[in-house]
């Protein structure tokens, strides 16, 4: 627990503060108008604190702070630190999926439109997010009939420019042909500008212009042009119809609907541009820290808009006004470069949209809670039973499992998989290349555990290690599981003893034959009932470690096979080698090819085909 500090040493100014645990990890980040006033609240008697705050203060051993000049800078600093350290006691925005955006690569000479789920490209402009990929694909297909912006990849664009021949999209009037200069820079820039304007909701002027051009062409008896304009007008109107009209053409706002309990919060955001609903986002938030409703809304606005790739709205419609509204508005103004207001809708179409967003959030949260109840209860029962059956000193919130894989002692690899709160945490998985050159699982296990524990001690002892890098190996497991029997377990325990961690990290092994659990220095196994949820949990992480090890071993083995045989063939570069393997499927099938067949491949020089045959059949070249 953190020691009480002299409050007089804490500055009475705005800033951000960070609580750290005994391993130096940042576990909570906060902000305050007055650091002194805020931090003194954490030094109240522990029994008077909220359980979540008490848990954080108990886990913390140190507190640091950074002062800034004003409240807006404090807010921005807080979010930057939360994003960097991902503290476990802060509210976390948890997207169940990545939403599709329509991106226009404005940083290129000839911008293109592309659908993406990774909105992190600098200089590009993003529109969305959209709830479904198929919806934006259909909209994009309709829009490029009227505004033929390119959608091809850069490699395809360069290939067409090299051969000076446009692709099929140009011939079916889905592209204006910038690859072969069939459109000028100015004309193409206008196409891109109009395309983006439609996505922002400004469609009326374009519809009126196309209708006037169509009428004029028909009156001049240019029926072919009139027909093309009619088709473009129809496509544009169908694309616009997909966006529901909910307000005035000048409306530019987001509506935030909420539904929450003590553990989580469901957020539903409706994106309204030019009076039309152009996007929707729904996500779940973990309420790790104790916050009031208006404080929670403040944090949600920060996390929703700090890294938003799309253009920020002029107005946010919210269920209630947060306490620090002026600070948040000033911060959003800096991000947008223009005024942003936050208000509660009381009547009219904005109130109707707010009711809809709240209803959407409520329905999504109802479904989520049903799933959460079943999953969370099962995991809690399994972890509790495991702690009881193994007599663990602490609850096994973090479990690490290790396994080895090899083929007759070759390509020896080890795997480390991690389970937190009973769920796999794949970002923490690690794999090891083992230096053992013979079939010795005991020595391999000892090497892997020694390396992992050395990195654990190094990460926590080295004060110069950056916290973002420290997190990779610095979290000690609550339980270490070894795939194997007593031999592997003894090597793991030896590594723990040499690292001085034998009293801090419990270790067990799970033998496959009878699914028996062994502990160090105990001859008799622990027989967990076959129907126990705790045994199923151990089997799950053991099987995951086995799968992860085998996949890495196969990857190395396949790479070695292709490299050792074909890499030395003179004239067979990586592109030819890849095509050769793609056509024949494997080295085994390639060996069945005759010398004549390999020498007569149209894309492969005859002497190279002969060299491939000689290498595969151990013949002198």
Automatic annotation (TrEMBL):
CDD domains named in the record: GIY-YIG_UvrC_Cho
Any one GO CC term of the record: excinuclease repair complex
Residue ranges constituting the UVR domain according to the UniProt record: 204-239
Annotated ranges, domain GIY-YIG: 12-91
Main location: cytoplasm
SMART domains in the record: GIYc
Signal peptide span: none
Source taxon at top rank: Bacteria
Domain UvrC family homology region profile, chain residue ranges per copy: 255-496
Record-level GO BP terms: nucleotide-excision repair; SOS response
Record's keyword terms, sorted: Cytoplasm, DNA damage, DNA excision, DNA repair, Excision nuclease, SOS response
Entries under InterPro entries matching the protein: GIY-YIG_endonuc, GIY-YIG_endonuc_sf, GIY-YIG_UvrC_Cho, RuvA_2-like, UVR_dom, UVR_dom_sf, UvrABC_protein_C, UvrC
Pfam families membership: GIY-YIG (PF01541), UVR (PF02151), UvrC_RNaseH (PF22920), UvrC_RNaseH_dom (PF08459)
Gene Ontology MF terms: DNA binding; excinuclease ABC activity
PROSITE patterns listed in its UniProt record: GIY_YIG, UVR, UVRC
Cell compartments where the protein resides: Cytoplasm
HAMAP family: UvrC (MF_00203)
Family: Belongs to the UvrC family.
Purpose: The UvrABC repair system catalyzes the recognition and processing of DNA lesions. UvrC both incises the 5' and 3' sides of the lesion. The N-terminal half is responsible for the 3' incision and the C-terminal half is responsible for the 5' incision.
Subunit structure, interactors included: Interacts with UvrB in an incision complex.
Protein name (database record): UvrABC system protein C
Provenance organism: Acidithrix ferrooxidans
Gene encoding the protein: uvrC
């Amino acid at each position: 627990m953190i020691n009480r500090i002299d409050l007089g040493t804490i500055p009475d100014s705005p800033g951000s503060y960070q609580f750290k645990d005994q391993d130096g990890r940042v576990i909570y980040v906060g902000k305050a108008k007055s650091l002194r006033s805020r931090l003194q609240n954490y030094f109240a008697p522990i029994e008077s604190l909220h359980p979540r705050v008490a848990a954080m203060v108990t886990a913390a051993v140190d507190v640091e702070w950074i002062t800034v000049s004003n409240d807006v800078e404090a807010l921005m600093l807080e979010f930057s630190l939360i994003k960097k350290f991902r503290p476990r006691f802060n509210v976390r925005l948890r997207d169940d999926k990545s939403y599709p955006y329509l991106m226009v690569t404005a940083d290129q000479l000839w911008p293109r439109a592309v659908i993406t789920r990774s909105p992190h490209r600098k200089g590009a402009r993003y529109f969305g997010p959209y709830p479904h990929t198929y919806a934006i694909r259909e909209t994009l297909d309709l829009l490029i009939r009227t505004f033929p912006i390119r959608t091809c990849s850069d490699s395809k664009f360069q290939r067409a420019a090299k051969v000076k021949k446009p692709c099929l999209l140009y011939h079916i009037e889905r592209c204006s042909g910038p690859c072969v200069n069939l459109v000028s820079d100015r004309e193409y820039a206008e196409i891109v500008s109009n395309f983006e304007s439609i996505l922002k909701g400004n469609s009326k002027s374009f519809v009126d212009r196309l209708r006037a051009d169509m009428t004029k062409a028909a009156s001049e008896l240019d029926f072919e042009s009139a027909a093309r304009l009619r088709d473009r007008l129809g496509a544009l109107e169908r694309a616009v119809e997909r966006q529901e009209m909910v307000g005035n053409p000048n409306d530019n706002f987001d509506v935030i609907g909420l539904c929450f309990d003590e553990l989580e919060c469901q957020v539903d955001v409706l994106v309204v541009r030019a009076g039309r609903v152009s996007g929707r986002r729904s996500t779940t938030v973990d309420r790790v820290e104790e916050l009031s409703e208006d404080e929670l809304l403040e944090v949600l606005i920060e996390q929703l808009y700090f890294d938003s790739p799309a253009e920020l709205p002029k107005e946010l419609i919210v269920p209630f006004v947060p306490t620090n509204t002026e600070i948040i508005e000033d911060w959003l103004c800096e991000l947008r470069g223009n005024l942003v207001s936050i208000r509660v809708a009381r009547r009219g179409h904005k109130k109707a949209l707010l009711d809809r967003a709240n209803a959407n959030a409520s329905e999504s949260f109802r479904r989520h809670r049903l799933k959460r109840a079943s999953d969370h209860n099962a995991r809690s029962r399994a972890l509790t039973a495991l702690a009881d059956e193994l007599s663990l000193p602490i609850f096994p919130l973090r479990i690490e499992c290790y396994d080895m894989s090899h083929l007759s002692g070759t390509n020896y690899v080890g795997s480390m998989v991690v389970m937190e709160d009973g769920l796999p945490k794949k970002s923490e998985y690690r794999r090891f290349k083992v230096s053992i050159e013979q079939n010795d699982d005991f020595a391999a296990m000892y090497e892997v555990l020694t390396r992992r524990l050395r990195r654990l001690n190094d990460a926590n002892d080295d004060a110069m290690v950056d916290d973002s890098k420290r997190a990779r190996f610095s979290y000690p497991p609550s339980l270490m599981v070894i795939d194997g029997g007593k031999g592997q377990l003894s090597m793991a325990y030896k590594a723990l003893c040499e690292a001085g961690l034998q009293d801090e990290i419990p270790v067990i092994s799970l033998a496959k034959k009878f699914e028996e659990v062994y502990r160090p220095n105990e001859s008799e196994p622990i027989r967990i009932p076959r129907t126990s949820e705790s045994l199923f949990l151990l089997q799950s992480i053991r099987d995951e470690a086995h799968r992860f090890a085998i996949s890495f071993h196969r990857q190395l083995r396949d790479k070695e096979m292709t490299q050792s045989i074909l890499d030395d063939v003179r004239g067979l570069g990586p592109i030819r080698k890849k095509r050769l393997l793609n056509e024949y499927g494997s080295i085994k099938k390639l060996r069945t090819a005759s010398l004549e067949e390999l020498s007569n491949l149209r894309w492969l020089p005859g002497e190279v085909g002969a060299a491939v045959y000689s290498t595969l059949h151990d013949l002198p070249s």
